[in-house]
Automatic annotation (TrEMBL):
Chain location of the short sequence motif 'HIGH' region per the record: 41-51
Main localisation: cytoplasm
GO BP annotation list: leucyl-tRNA aminoacylation
Classification via PANTHER family: LEUCINE--TRNA LIGASE, MITOCHONDRIAL, LEUCYL-TRNA SYNTHETASE
Gene that encodes the chain: leuS
Span of domain Methionyl/Leucyl tRNA synthetase: 36-170
Record Pfam families: Anticodon_1 (PF08264), tRNA-synt_1 (PF00133), tRNA-synt_1_2 (PF13603), tRNA-synt_1g (PF09334)
Compartments (UniProt record): Cytoplasm
InterPro entries: aa-tRNA-synth_I_CS (IPR001412), aa-tRNA-synth_Ia (IPR002300), Leu-tRNA-ligase (IPR002302), Leu_tRNA-synth_edit (IPR025709), M/V/L/I-tRNA-synth_anticd-bd (IPR013155), Methionyl/Leucyl_tRNA_Synth (IPR015413), Rossmann-like_a/b/a_fold (IPR014729), tRNAsynth_Ia_anticodon-bd (IPR009080)
Taxonomy of the source species: Bacteria, Pseudomonadati, Pseudomonadota, Alphaproteobacteria, Rhodospirillales
Stretches assigned to the Methionyl/Valyl/Leucyl/Isoleucyl-tRNA synthetase anticodon-binding domain: 697-812
One annotated Gene Ontology cellular component of this protein: cytosol
Name of the protein in its database record: Leucine--tRNA ligase
GO molecular function, a single term: leucine-tRNA ligase activity
Binding positions (ATP): 615
Amino acid sequence: MARYNFKETEAKWQQVWAEKRCFNVEVDETKPKYYVLEMFPYPSGRIHMGHVRNYTLGDVVARYKKARGFNVLHPMGWDAFGLPAENAAIENKVHPAKWTYENIASMRTQLQGMGLSYDWEREIATCHPDYYRHEQRMFLDFHKAGLAYRKESWVNWDPVENTVLANEQVIDGRGWRSGALVEKKLLSQWFLKITDYAEELLQAIQTLERWPDRVRLMQHNWIGRSEGARVFFPIVGRDEKLEVFTTRHDTLFGASFCAISPNHPLAGALAANNAELTAFIAECNRIGTSEAAIETAEKKGFDTGLKAIHPLDPSWQVPIYVANFVLMEYGTGAIFGCPAHDQRDLDFARKYGLPVIPVVKPTDTDAVAIGDTAFPGEGVLFNSRFLDGLPVESAKTRMAEELRRLDAGQPTISYRLRDWGVSRQRYWGCPIPFIHCQDCGIVPVPEQDLPVELPEDVTFDAPGNPLDRHPTWKHVSCPECGKPATRETDTFDTFFESSWYFARFADARGAEAFDRNKADYWLSVDQYIGGIEHAVLHLLYSRFFMRALKKCGYTDVEEPFAGLLTQGMVCHETYKDENGKWLFPSQVAKDADGRSVSVEDGRPVTVGRSEKMSKSRKNVVDPVHIIDSYGADTARLFMLSDSPPERDLDWTDSGIDGAWRYLNRLHRLIGEPSFALPAPDAPRPDTLGDKAAAAEKALHKTIAGISEDLDKFHFNKAVARIREFSNLLETLDGKTDGEGWALRRGLETLVQLIGPMTPHLAEELWALLGHETLLAETAWPVADPALLVDDSVTVAIQVNGKLRGTIELPRDCAKEDAEQAALALPAVIQQLDGKAPRKVIVVPNRIVNVVG
RNA sequence: GCCCGCUUGGCGGAAUCGGUAGACGCAGCAGACUUAAAAUCUGUUUUCCGUAUGGAAGUGCCGGUUCGAGUCCGGCAGCGGGCACCA
């Protein structure tokens, strides 16, 4: 028989599945539903290995659940708005819409070549008005419900390009294209009140039982609930009081300074007639807007000269600094510093020569000297008047009472979570449906005027937002007073689209955003699969969005994703030539001595370690090329083999070869069996020989094992079991009774079990085995529990925890028998050297440990 | 800087609840088939000592709990992800 012709086979079955509409689904109340979803891609134009991995994982789940009798919804769409389309417009003079839709078309073809079981009739593209019109409506509803509001916030501003930069466009504090020093600038922007749901989003994390713990923990920390107190410090010579937030009000007697954010109103007021302070604030504002940039910048302060009066002692004054590490967005934008018990405060105090007053000491020592290390731990208060002798927690309570009594503060809960800024000063996004009128203020676009569509006739030859400088688009009359007004020219953050697309799939062509009945049937997503990089933002925004939609009457579903699987990245070795230039893997080969050399000129190549595939490092392998040379099934099998899904996967040529070899081996095993198989419907012989009986047992163990592996997403283990079982089937030679039957049953089951992973080859082999129905429509095999247990077990015998031998024992034999058998073992007798064992520990069916 | 992970042979990984570390594969080595190559098949492969039966060590590092630790606890190191305008 010829080698497996994957091209012909894969195309054939893809066509059959499409023609028979195997994966198109409707609501069916008679079946349990299962909604499996992979994070939809940004249509960059070409799929990458990360996509191949993500969609293979999802497809295995979808096909497996379908075989298990579920009504499976498995859709695909395009996260089609975003920056790269605008960059392409600027660089290649192609319109973002044209670029995006062409990319979608080619990526769809590439995905279809993978044989994924999508219901393509539900495909959506978020840049289409039929999609984004609904979110404009949602935003108006959010606004009515008090969940959308405007406030000023900071953006990265490129003064040369006169444009707002994304964090990723700021490199070492400079604009990526202009190279200009980036400034922070205040803009009035739209926000969604996710903070209204901080507590609910936090509490509900507990209900997300099928999410990875680490993602739940990351969301928990992101929301960042902290119990503390607001404390008022009167300011010498001014009427106002400085309000600070602290979680360590127990250490108030260790206060040595106050610090406010450069963006605190007080800092602004003082800067008005202080050029030095103005310059300091400007310097602070040159640090980017990202938290990482602010946190890693050198901690600096500016003494305002103002003094704050200690809330518990009018005679005690501390200086007020403006400090670059105090965030206006968190707490009250002002802190008090207690250097002895906070490392950052200590560093600050040492730098500016401020006093360090220890007020908490560890319970087990009297040592209280503070050097360069603060003591943030638990302990007992001292140096603290009425708090002396109290442990930290009691001191907090006592201090809160005192603050309340003096009207100097109160306990409060603060969250790190900030409201979600959804405004973007960009063209390629969903227009925000509001109108600015000089007389009426901010006016919503009337619902009958939705959608507000993006104008197509825009240019990217000038800096700034094309919507803003479009000759006509933004000029409208005010819906309320009719006078000339202007449209909002900001568009939505693209997280807006991805916060509800999973609901749109329930009814992708409906006139409403989603049909309630259909959404109620399909949601929540039973299994969501995507990269760990979305652990916080996308997933948290979606959780909030569903709650906001619920408040506006769209749905009763609160949690969008009941189950979550976060996959690791696809990595590859990196290569550099002698000049330190990156090389593509395809430009590198091994010479006769096994050294890596350049294909072009044979010069030596430095091989770097494996890193996430990225265009900048050129360590990419094009999936299209792989699928072309090996077929989709080979690529899929490789993606599932070896590495568990949540870990990083190393792409290797030998790995893909191994997968390819196995598929050919399987094809040979069935196409050219070593002896003639009985007919498909041949009955089980009454007596099986030893080998056939062992094969039958292995068959049922394999079914049970792989089912469990797939339930737990242990795809690599499932592949190992498949290979183990096919190794066993290859040892059958038909010389004893029942082997023919066992081989046929084994092969058929093997094909069924590998079906979700390599669907084309499995479908082909299923037909080859004489089936006229589709494997894609065939129920999953069932293991016979009676065949899963063995009569005897191998028990490990240890002396003092060291393995000294193994013995075969009847399953569940008496502990005494196991002990007897162990003590009779020559190696054990020798180790004991005539002495009686002190103790014998027997773990039934597993181990006997003789302690001497 | 803060938050979250990960670390097991030459390599990817397996080891259900604390109970035989290295399943399965890759690469390597030896062999079979072949005029030859490819493909395929067979054997072998944690390290060290030993001709061998066998013995010792071993899951990033240091320490602890336990009859028994890859697994639990404390500390450390290295690598990676996220940090609110990349998606």
